[in-house]
Design brief:
247 residues; alpha+beta; two-stranded antiparallel ribbon
Length: 247
């Protein structure tokens, strides 16, 4: 993180100078001599896990507990989700260690002559802070943070990694903004959604119930389903959606 903050980067990883500094600092603090390839392997592993974490944040239908930094998802959700993404299991009880440092490593820090800040942090001024992410090729991508500071903006291209992060960020923002909604506006949980599906007369083990289990993982689908006034209307929508998904 220190080397990233010191702009010792070359593409998606550290520059030659950055690795030399890292080797020296690591030896001074730990007393073990490692080489550039070993640090690069560690970088790649951390980046992979960081990407998994961002993918998990972007999973639809989740709540977020900012105090415990864990997903507000029940056992049913995790069971279905981990069948598709078993690599996310390690984050069930919290984010990766040293997440703040990894945010800096895998996003660009913007520094002005008057202040220094990680993108998205408020440091005064009138422009919105661009948040940049780098993919494996070293190309950068930009999103506009909610907070502001005085630095200018670059002209970076969008990357797949940026897309995942941008969607995750927007999802978390919308959840936080909606946390004060009334109970009547509450989107049903997966468990509540499937319970209502059963109330509509759909039996477990059927094709329509299988479709319903997929829809349960999508917050928008659960919201639409709950918006119907009657179970007849919900069943009709579910049957039409099932037919459309299986054309």
């Amino acid at each position: 993180m220190e080397e990233v903050n010191n702009n010792n980067r070359d593409g998606g990883c550290l520059s030659k100078k950055g690795y030399e500094n890292l080797e020296r600092k690591f030896y001074e603090k730990v007393g073990e001599k490692l080489v550039r390839k070993q640090f690069k392997n560690k970088w790649d592993q951390l980046k992979k896990e960081y990407t998994w974490w961002m993918e998990l944040l972007n999973a639809t239908g989740l709540g977020w507990d900012p105090q415990t930094k864990t997903m507000d998802a029940d056992d049913d959700w995790w069971k279905i989700h981990l069948e598709m993404r078993p690599d996310h299991a390690k984050f069930r009880n919290g984010p990766p260690p040293n997440l703040e440092q990894q945010d800096v490593m895998f996003r660009k820090a913007h520094v002005t002559g008057e202040s220094a800040a990680i993108a998205g942090q408020e440091t005064g001024g009138g422009k919105e802070a661009p948040i940049l992410l780098e993919d494996d090729r070293g190309t950068s991508s930009k999103i506009t943070g909610k907070r502001k500071f005085g630095a200018g903006e670059g002209n970076e291209k969008e990357s797949p990694f940026f897309t995942v992060y941008n969607n995750a960020l927007n999802t978390l923002v919308s959840r936080n903004e909606g946390s004060s909604s009334t109970k009547a506006d509450k989107v049903p949980t997966m468990k509540e959604f499937l319970a209502t599906v059963r109330e509509c007369g759909v039996s477990e083990g059927t094709d329509i119930m299988f479709t319903a289990s997929k829809l349960a993982m999508n917050r928008d689908s659960r919201e639409v389903f709950a918006a119907f006034a009657t179970n007849e209307g919900r069943l009709d929508w579910l049957q039409r959606t099932h037919a459309e998904m299986n054309k």
